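Reopening this one. Same input as before:
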Amino acid sequence: MRRFLTASHGPLSEAILQSASLIAGQEAFSGFRSISVIMSDSRETVMGRIDQLFSQYDPEDEIIAITDVFGGSITNALTEYISLRKLHIVAGMNLPLVLEAGLSDESIPVEELVKNLQATGHEQILYVNDMIDQNNGEDEI
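Same output, byte for byte:
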């Protein structure tokens, strides 16, 4: 089975799931889980949260973790599980990427899905002023 996890510093991971559910419906994100860390969390606390979550999954489950920032403590903690689980980590979470994950078809191979998520995240980072300038000042893009 395919599992999704959002992970962040502070409440972003839960908030982004709430926003995605508002846009696409709660059903699409009902199977998602989130982990949030705060400054006072020790490494052991973070690892314990991950262990607790992963213990609920079958060892054969494919897990796609979407994290807030590459090099952050939660991303670094999750990387320790790559050799232990079928875990794929996409760092640089944004709402379009999470929406794409929630609306994805489970028949798509996980490696292809992860590449699609990465592309979606990149494609949605735009400087709107430049786009308006390119459209001759029209406010609609």
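So the earlier flakiness isn't reproducible anymore. For the record, Helices lie at 12-24, 43-54, 73-79, 95-102, 110-123, 128-134.
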